[in-house]
Amino acid sequence: MRKFLQRLFLVLIATVVSLAGVEVLVRVFWNQLNRQAVIPLTLKTHRFTENKVMGYELVPGSVAFEDNAWYRINPDGIRDREYALAKPAGTYRIAAVGDSCTFGLGLALEDTWPKQLERELQRTDPRVEVINFGVMGYNTPQEAERIQDKVLKYSPDLIIIGYSLNDIGVLSRQRTLLATYKGYDSFLTTGNRFVDGLLPHAKTYMLIKNRLFLKKTHADTNPKYSKDGLKYIQRGYNRYFFDAYEEAENWNILVKAFAKIRDLTQPKIPVLLVIHSELQEMDPYLFRDIHEIVKKLSLDHGFLVLDPLDEILAHKVRDLRISTANTHPNAMGNQVFVQAIARYLRANSMMK
User: Fold this and answer.
1) How many separate domains does the chain show?
2) Domain of residue 205, residue span
3) For 254-280, what is the mean pLDDT?
């Protein structure tokens, strides 16, 4: 019996060591092994909404670790701390609206541009609040709905829209993605909350789960794409941008969304539209003409507009983005963005 237990113990030790070795290898080669993304949109922090324009929204009170960052959504469906709807007396409240660059894909909340802006402005004016209303993947029509549905009830003194060039409608997350992956969270789980809370931390488990789920749903062999997504695949990233601003359908959708934002806010609430630069390796930068198109459209709708492109290009692009594969701004990229906004607000005496 003793020899049996000794052998069993050695087998268990060997198994644990082998599993640990596999886990190490999977972590080292994770990007290559898990090349096909299973969740293009974090299911734990996003859900369907009956609002057909928005399509989806953040899940109130949800928490998830995704993209090497913790995403914590407050009880009102905002990635920020809780704020009272009734604005405190004397407070100057700024609402930050935008897509994943505003939400802060891959970043801690404090590294997002809205929270960096709040800290920067509070250095000289402690009464300033900046609330992050960003949602990953939203385009301008969705952001207009976000302003109507969520932002206005917080009585902002200023709305700042972080405009990404693809906010004309391209590459936005769609209901079809949520529909494809809606069973992912409950797939390959034990039913024990403690165990199921630990399993996602094991990359080997996640690799097996992802592969099996893709096979089950056929998402690996028959992925669903929006009309814009198919165009992007066929034309390539740069060509697709230029075409998007020339196509009447996308352009009319963008103009309609700008008009809705104008009607919701003007003249009571000023809107400052700040343009995000594309953080790709470009010499020269390819999209200056698109920046000019967006600036003119903003001014035509009565918005204030700021383009920090020159400040961005004064740095090496690789220093401002999360990685070569993930060109969203990192903490430093957001810092450069924020410095331009803070200078503009102070120079124009916006916070009265």
Assistant:
1) 2
2) 175-217
3) 96
pTM, rounded to two decimals: 0.82
Same domain? 336 vs 187? no
Contacts (Cβ under 8 Å, ≥6 apart) of 95 = 131, 133, 147, 151, 154, 156, 158, 159, 160
Contact 327, 279 (CB under 8 A): yes
CA-to-CA distance for 225 and 146, rounded, in angstroms? 24
Q: Are residues 241 and 317 in the same domain?
A: yes
- Would you say 317 and 280 are in contact if contact means Cβ atoms under 8 Å apart? yes
Name, in order, each residue with C-beta under 8 angstroms of 249's C-beta and a sequence gap of 6 or more: none
Domain assignment present for 322: yes
Q: Is the pLDDT of residue 173 over 60?
A: no
Instruction: Please state, in angstroms and rounded to a whole number, the distance separating the CA atoms of residues 227 and 130.
Output: 35
* Pairing relationship of beta strands 56-58 and 46-48 according to DSSP bridges: antiparallel
- The number of beta carbons lying within 10 Å of the beta carbon of residue 27 is 13
On the question of pLDDT at 38 being above 60, the answer is no
> Quick one: residue 321, left, alpha or beta (phi over 0 = left, psi -120 to 50 = alpha)?
beta
Q: Is the pLDDT of residue 80 over 60?
A: yes
Supply the CATH number for residue 134's domain: 3.40.50.1110
